[in-house]
Amino acid sequence: MHTIAVLAIPPVTTFDLSIPEMLFPAVQVDGVPGYRVVLCTPDPGTVPSLLGMSVVIEHGLEALTTADTIVVTGTGSRAEGDPRVLDALRERAASGTRIASICTGAFVLAQAGLLDDRPATTYWLYSQEMRERFPAVRLCPDVLFVDDGQVLTSAGLAAGIDLCLHLVRSDYGAAVANAVARLAVVAPVRAGGQAQFIETPLPPENGESLAATREWAVRRLDEPLTLRELAAYAHMSTRTLTRRFRAETGLSPLQWLLHQRVDRARELLEVTDLPMNEVARRSGLGSAESLRQHMVRRNGLTPSAYRAGFSRR
What we know:
By secondary structure, this protein is an alpha/beta fold. The protein has 2 domains: 2-183, Class I glutamine amidotransferase (GATase) domain (Rossmann fold, 3-Layer(aba) Sandwich); 211-310, Arc Repressor Mutant, subunit A, CATH 1.10.10. It has 13 helices and 12 strands. The chain has helices spanning 14-23, 83-94, 105-111, 127-133, 159-172, 174-183, 211-218, 227-234, 238-249, 253-271, 276-283, 288-299, 303-310; strands at residues 2-7, 28-29, 32-33, 35-40, 45-48, 54-57, 69-72, 98-101, 119-120, 138-139, 145-148, 151-154. The strands form 4 sheets. Strands 4-1-7-8-12-11 form a 6-stranded mixed sheet, sandwiched between helices. Strands 2-3 form a two-stranded antiparallel ribbon. A two-stranded antiparallel sheet has the order 5-6. It starts with a strand and ends with a helix.
């Protein structure tokens, strides 16, 4: 039986702690449990959580020595970690133990040096902090999880579910992982490269002189608007238009227009059953292939996958 040690770093995030405790024991292979799960912490006993409640954990770091996989859950403390924890993780990594983190647990792995020169991710809200504190980490801030072989990291909150299901799939196959997903009433196994769907709004608009032009363009996203046409409507040269557009939006006119078109495409995918060519036409992206390229680049999903996951119909 595969043993998983779930390492809680106080103050622990109870949601992150519950994910492996919920999913791994649900794995059955030919009627036999697939995993043995052990919760552990540096100082066994009462462990504080971010919500002010306490969790009682009986096992200490010795549980790591017999684990096939270690899962470090999210923690409210991203400061320098407990030396006992860091040493234990380094030792287990050197012995070949598979090590994964959920959410801010990636900071613990980074402090132990386990993410140096590796691709990794964490909760997008703390990506800039991770980048500044651990420049040796090859941060992938907009994905659900990263599997780099022995070391795996996930983004925040529900992305930990995706990571754990991925571990199950790696160990026992997609059929077993999807059966667990059904039992837990969560989405089937999703690819790690899928975007976290962070809101990436346009830069704040700092002026109103081109507000009418922007409104005019948004009403005509399905038309092949050119820089010259935008400038003509604004009654200025293309050079002046570009300069003012950057000053007011932080983007060039055509960059801003592309953002608007992708957002229109996302809206159409969510609220209509239009075929892809029609979605592309109405959003001004031209063809279904162009729509696909821009959706994958912006959101990490094909239009079909985006519609399947986010349709409001």
